[in-house]
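hi! just following up on the protien thing from before. the input was this:
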Amino acid sequence: MFRFSRLTKRAVRCRVPIAILVMLASVSTSHVAPSAALSGPTDIGTLGGTYSRALAVNDAGQVVGTSTIAGDAEWHAFSWTQAGGMVDLGVLAGNNSYANAVNASGQVVGGSTYSASRANHAFSWTQAGGMVDLGTLGGSSDYAQAVNDAGQVVGSSNLAGDGASHGFSWTQSGGMVDLGSFGGSFGEAQDVNASGQVAGTSTLVNYSQYHAYLWTQSGGKQDLGTLGNPSSQAFAVNDSGQVVGYLFGGTVNHAFSWTQAGGMVDLGTLGGNSSYAQAVNGAGQVAGTSATTGDSPSDAFLWTQAGGMVDLGSLGGPYTVAFAINDSGVVVGAGYTTADFSVEHAFAWTQSDGMVDLGTLGGNRSDASAVNASGLAVGEAQTASGENHAAVWHVGPAVPGSADQVVTGGDVVDTDTGGVGPTPAVPVQTRVVVPAGVNGELSITPQDPTAPPAGFAFFGKQVVIVAPPATGPAAPYIATFSIDASALGGIAPADVQVFRNGVPVADCTDASQAIPDPCVAARGLVSGGAGDAFVTVRTTHFSTWSVGRFAYTPSGFFAPVDNLPTINTVKAGSAVPVKFGLGGNRGLNVLVAGSPSSVLVACGSGPSDAIEQTTTAGASSLSYDAGSARYQYVWKTDKAWVGCRDLVVRFRDGSTLRARFSFK
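and the predicted 3d structure came back as:
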């Protein structure tokens, strides 16, 4: 008897026929202990009731799903973020709602009861516009299943009279479009990719046969075939137009992959009779589940064009089911850990770690429904008291320079787990000391940097730090960024700059507190670090941090000074106006200590040019003229100088300007 309580909830949402689920099981014991790349589960709470479940997550870490409200009589769609917590998305005209998907901009789609009759309508929710009813194709009910980053929503809707249903595609400009049928009375749209290709399933005239399809605005509905089986069903489509699902209804019930170039391909099984494909990533890797012997047991699998179907193992009990895969090849799902079906746990699988048991919130059950690009997996987990709450895990291969763990006051989170310090490959390592009074999850995630402010350059990647706020400036977080010597470019540690959300961080007025908040408490060289530098920040809250340096664009000298190889001739004792540009106004603190300076050199050969302009010698100082966007420094020469000297102007970003003078 099939007993996957949480797996069947996910399966119903994805329209996996119960017949296929019943025959899939597993007895493999090839699971491993959690790796350093794993944290959680983290309970993200409920909307006041005792049950919640996360179903989808975008790459920004926005999680959506459904939760009961106080009293557990109604459930509402929710959106959760680390910064904002769980937000009730409300309902349409009825009592209940659920969220199935979220895109990159935070648009959430799902379904909500529309009236006291409990008819269900598809909705789209945005922060600005709230929950919007998408209407139907003429019938009383529909639901939204997926949404792409362009805001195109797909799902299934009843037609007038409610005797038939078709897949639909909805856009803000075009409204709801009927995707048609293959002559039967049932159809649904299951997924949509970035270019608007829709994958779904429709019945034929006799209603007993289902065919997978791919729909486009320009080409309409394309029947993907069945490879001779009575039926096929599509579950997912990637941005290349690769569709995956399964064949059923005959003697062969197998997973398939379809591409425009290669058509439909039977993915086979892991040795048993049946398999189905649930998800596909951008690289064409397919995740699903397959029987290993006869009709049961079964294991989760990963299929690639080059390697075929690979058994991902199990958690020690029968049945593992793969639900999702990200573009890094991290697969998530759930499986039993005991032969008697009493304990069911979420899992994550990676090439490096194999299958990892993600654990629970103290109870017996959990499952992971989705995973984003950075390895944030979402689903639900049972608490010690028996409630089921939406949960998140950080899983997958550790990204160099990243860390994630649940912390309490006094803990230290360090991305340099090997103790090797920063390197040219990972030029910035981060260490955070957690202050008293803080409890929760702290994550450090490197990502490609945004453009730095004018006059600056960043070292390596920027770092996104997410953590609960500290209690106040007197008990702040202490974050230390270590920078590899190869990235410094010769600048002094005192000139290492820290930026929060692109804004330079000021120095602390009190090095023991976060005043101002945030502030730089110390800079220097790492002891034994072969020229590595560090900068320490005190802050009560985190966001996006970058470490960098000044980055000027010296123009060379302007008249009256000529640049090398020309030799400037000047009367010793004259005051020479030295003019240069740095790509804009970088302030007056642009020179290193002791600059400008001069050094005695051999005159060498080269054209010569007399200084056409001198000025009255006064107090030598640097000034900036906004009209010409040039700096000027009046260089006072010594009457005793003879021969040739180089004027050397050194800047805080490590760059240098040099000009040669012959004195007479």
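The two ends are 104 Å apart (CA to CA).
The longest strand covers residues 48-57.
cheers
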